[in-house]
C-alpha cells in the first residue's frame, strides 16, 4: 500500500543522497558492510524498515552504482592474469559493486523473527534408520585450512600445530577419517580447503604422515584470492616492493565459487558425492557425526547449520533468526545492528542460537541454486579496512572484501538448523584455548577425537603480555598443569609451569616482578598465589622452545 511505497521510496532517496556525498577516503572502519554515519542516520530514521528490494540471497540491497565511482575492468584483467576462474571473478565483482554502491548490511529488529525452537542432536537417532555404508560413500569431509594463526604468532597453517603426543590438528583429523573408513567400511572423501599461504606446508606434512590421503583425487580445494582495493581511488591497490601484498584471502564464503570455478563441484557430483560436511580445521569438536549425517540426508534440505545455545559470553556475537519477508533463515552479526536494536540483539533469551560454523551442504541442491541465481550466491559483504602492507601503518589504506560461508543459509529455499552440544564448538583461536586442549581436561579417544573428561572445559585466562604468542607460552610451560578438576585458571605476569602442577577449583597465580618465576610442584585449590623470587633452584630447561610444529 501507500505506506510500503513511501517507505521504499524513502529508502531510495536516502541511498541516492548518501551516494552523492560519498567520499571513499573518509569511510570509517567497519567489520561488516558499510557503517557510514550519513547512511546510518537514515537507517535509524526508519528509511530501511521497508522490505528489502531483493531478498533472494541478500538481506538488504541498494542500486548498483559501480560505474559512478569505480571501474571493475582493471580488477577483472588483474584476476584473469592471475589465472582466477570466472566464478571467482563474478563473486568479487558482486562484492566490489556492493562496496561502490554503499550497500549497508543493517538488519532491523522489526524485519526478523526470533527462532523459538529447533531440533536437537541429542534427541535424534537417525543413524539407526539408514544404510550408513551407502550414505558415507556419498559423503565428503571438507576442512577449512586456510588460516595461518598469525594472531598467535604462527607462520604456518594452524592445523600443523602440535596438540599432544606429537600429533597435530591435521593428524587427528586424518586419523578420524581413516577410523570412520575402517569402522564402517566405506570410503568417505577427505578434502582440505587450503589457501595460497597454507597449501605447500600442508601437503608436505600429509605426504610424510598420511600419503594415501593427499594422493587421493580432489583432496585439495585451493581458496581463491582477491585484489586489495585502494581505499581512496577504489582501484586495484599496488605494492611494487612485494606484489603478493596486493592480494588477500576472500574469507571462507569463497568455498562456493571455489567449488564451482575449480570444477570440483561437478567432479564430486559425477563421483556420486552428494553430502559435504564443512568445518574449521582448528575445531576438533567438529567430527563427522553419523546421526547428523543421516538426519541431514533424510531432511532433504540443501543446507544445514549446526547452532549452539548462546550464553552471556556470546551475547556480542551473531545469532540465527528468520526474515519476515520470505521466511528464510538469516545470520545476523553485530555489525548488522543499529544502536537502537543492540539491546534486543544481545538478549540471549530472545535470540537463543549462534552459528558454530559446522555446516552440511547438499551438492546437487547447491548446483541447482547456483544455476537459478546465475552461478553466484550473493552473500553479505564483510569489509575490512587495512593497509596494503599490514606491518606498515603508513602504507596505502586498502579495503579487503570477504564473505562468510554460513551467511549462505539465506540463499537456499530449503535450509535448516539443528542445536548441537557446545562440545562440537571448540575452536582454538587463542593460546588460552590451546593451553586447555593440551591439558588432561581432554582425552584422545580410539577414534582420534578429543573429548572432555568431565562436563565442561575450565576457563583459562593467561596474561596476553606473556602468553599471547605460542612460542612465548611454550617457553613458560614446561608441562601443562593438570586441569581435569579445575573450574578456572588465571595467570597474571610471567609464570612458569614445571611438571607436577595440579589445579583444582578456581586458582590465580600472580607475578608482579616482571621476571619469569616458577610455580612450585604441587596441588593448588581455590586460592590466589602470589609468586616471589626464591632461592630454590629452577627446574632445568632446554632453552626457548619454538612453536611445536610436527
Task: Describe the 3D structure.
This protein is of the alpha/beta class. It has 17 helices and 25 strands. α5 (86-101) packs antiparallel against α10. The model is unreliable at 1-55, 60-68 and 542-550 (pLDDT under 50).
Short overview:
The chain is α/β, with parallel strands linked by helices. Helices cover 27% and strands 22% of the residues. The strands form eight sheets. Strands 6-5-2-10-14-11-17 form a seven-stranded mixed sheet, with helices on both faces. A four-stranded parallel sheet has the order 20-21-23-25, covered by helices on one side. A three-stranded antiparallel sheet has the order 1-12-13, with no helix packed on it.
Topology of this structure?
Layout: H1 2-20, H2 37-44, H3 66-69, H4 73-81, H5 86-101, E1 112-114, H6 132-136, E2 139-145, E3 162-164, E4 167-168, H7 169-184, E5 189-194, H8 199-209, H9 211-214, E6 220-222, E7 226-227, E8 229-230, E9 247-248, H10 255-261, H11 264-270, E10 275-280, H12 290-299, E11 303-309, E12 319-323, E13 329-332, H13 342-345, E14 353-362, H14 363-372, E15 382-387, E16 397-402, E17 415-419, H15 431-437, E18 442-444, E19 450-452, E20 459-461, H16 464-467, H17 470-476, E21 482-492, E22 495-496, E23 501-510, E24 517-518, E25 522-530
Parallel strand pairs: 2-5, 2-10, 5-6, 11-17, 20-21, 21-23, 22-24, 23-25
Antiparallel strand pairs: 1-12, 3-4, 7-9, 8-16, 10-14, 11-14, 12-13, 15-16, 18-19
Helix pairs in contact: 5-10
**Structural class of the secondary structure composition?**
alpha/beta
Query: How does the major sheet shape up?
Result: 7 strands, mixed
Low-confidence sequence ranges: 1-55, 60-68, 542-550
Q: What is the rounded distance between the termini?
A: 65 Å
| Counted beta strands | 25
Radius of gyration: 25 Å
Strand content: 15-25%
The general outline is globular
Multimerization status: single chain
| Sequence of strands across the biggest β-sheet | 6-5-2-10-14-11-17
Q: So how many helices?
A: 17
Helical fraction equals 25-40%
**Average of pLDDT:** 86
Amino acid at each position: 500500500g501507500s505506506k510500503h511505497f513511501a517507505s521504499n521510496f524513502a529508502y531510495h532517496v536516502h541511498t541516492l543522497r548518501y551516494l552523492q556525498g560519498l567520499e571513499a577516503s573518509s569511510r570509517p572502519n567497519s567489520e561488516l558492510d558499510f557503517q557510514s554515519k550519513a547512511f546510518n542516520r537514515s537507517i535509524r530514521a526508519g528509511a530501511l524498515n521497508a522490505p528489502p528490494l531483493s531478498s533472494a540471497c541478500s538481506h538488504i540491497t541498494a542500486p548498483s552504482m559501480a560505474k559512478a565511482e569505480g571501474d571493475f575492468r582493471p580488477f577483472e584483467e588483474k584476476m584473469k592474469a592471475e589465472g582466477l576462474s570466472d566464478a571467482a571473478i563474478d563473486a568479487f565483482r558482486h562484492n566490489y559493486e556492493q562496496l561502490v554502491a554503499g550497500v549497508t548490511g543493517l538488519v532491523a529488529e522489526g524485519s526478523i523473527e526470533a527462532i523459538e525452537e529447533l531440533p536437537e542432536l541429542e534427541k535424534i537417532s537417525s543413524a539407526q534408520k539408514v544404510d550408513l555404508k551407502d550414505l558415507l560413500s556419498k559423503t565428503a569431509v571438507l576442512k577449512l585450512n586456510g588460516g595461518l594463526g598469525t594472531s598467535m604468532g604462527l607462520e604456518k597453517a594452524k592445523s600443523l600445530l602440535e596438540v599432544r603426543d606429537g600429533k597435530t590438528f591435521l593428524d587427528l583429523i586424518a586419523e578420524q577419517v581413516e577410523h570412520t573408513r575402517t569402522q564402517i567400511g566405506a570410503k568417505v572423501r577427505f578434502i582440505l580447503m587450503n589457501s595460497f599461504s597454507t597449501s605447500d606446508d600442508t601437503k608436505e606434512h600429509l605426504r610424510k604422515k598420511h600419503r594415501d590421503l593427499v594422493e587421493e583425487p580432489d583432496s585439495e580445494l585451493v581458496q581463491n584470492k582477491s585484489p586489495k582495493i585502494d581505499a581512496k581511488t577504489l582501484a586495484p591497490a599496488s605494492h611494487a616492493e612485494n606484489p603478493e601484498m596486493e592480494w588477500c584471502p576472500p574469507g571462507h564464503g569463497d568455498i562456493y565459487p571455489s567449488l564451482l570455478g575449480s570444477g570440483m563441484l561437478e567432479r564430486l557430483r559425477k563421483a556420486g558425492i552428494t553430502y559435504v560436511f564443512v568445518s574449521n580445521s582448528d575445531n576438533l569438536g567438529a567430527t563427522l557425526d553419523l546421526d547428523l549425517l543421516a538426519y541431514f540426508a533424510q531432511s532433504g534440505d540443501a543446507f544445514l547449520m549446526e547452532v549452539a545455545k548462546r550464553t552471556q559470553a556470546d551475547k556480542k556475537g551473531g545469532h540465527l533468526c528468520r526474515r519476515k519477508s520470505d521466511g528464510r533463515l538469516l545470520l545476523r552479526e553485530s555489525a548488522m545492528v543499529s544502536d537502537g536494536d543492540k539491546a534486543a540483539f544481545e538478549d540471549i533469551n530472545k535470540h537463543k542460537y549462534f552459528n558454530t560454523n559446522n555446516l552440511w551442504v547438499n551438492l546437487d541442491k547447491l548446483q541447482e541454486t547456483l544455476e537459478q541465481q546465475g552461478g553466484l550466491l550473493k552473500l553479505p559483504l564483510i569489509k575490512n579496512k587495512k593497509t596494503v602492507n599490514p606491518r606498515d601503518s603508513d602504507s596505502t589504506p586498502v579495503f579487503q572484501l570477504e564473505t562468510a560461508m554460513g551467511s549462505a543459509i539465506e540463499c537456499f529455499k530449503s535450509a535448516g538448523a539443528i542445536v548441537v552440544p557446545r562440545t562440537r564448538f571448540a575452536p582454538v583461536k587463542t593460546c588460552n584455548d590451546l593451553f586447555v586442549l593440551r591439558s588432561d581436561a581432554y582425552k584422545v579417544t580410539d577414534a582420534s577425537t578429543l573429548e572432555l573428561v568431565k562436563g565442561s572445559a575450565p576457563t583459562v585466562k593467561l596474561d596476553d603480555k606473556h602468553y599471547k604468542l605460542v612460542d612465548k607460552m611454550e617457553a613458560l610451560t614446561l608441562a601443562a598443569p593438570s586441569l581435569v578438576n579445575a573450574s578456572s585458571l588465571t595467570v597474571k605476569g610471567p609464570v612458569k609451569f614445571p611438571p607436577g602442577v595440579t589445579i583444582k577449583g578456581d586458582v590465580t597465580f600472580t607475578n608482579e616482578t616482571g621476571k619469569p618465576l616458577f610455580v612450585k610442584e604441587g596441588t593448588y585449590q581455590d586460592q590466589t598465589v602470589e609468586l616471589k623470587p626464591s632461592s630454590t633452584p629452577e627446574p632445568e630447561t632446554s632453552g626457548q622452545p619454538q612453536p611445536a610444529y610436527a
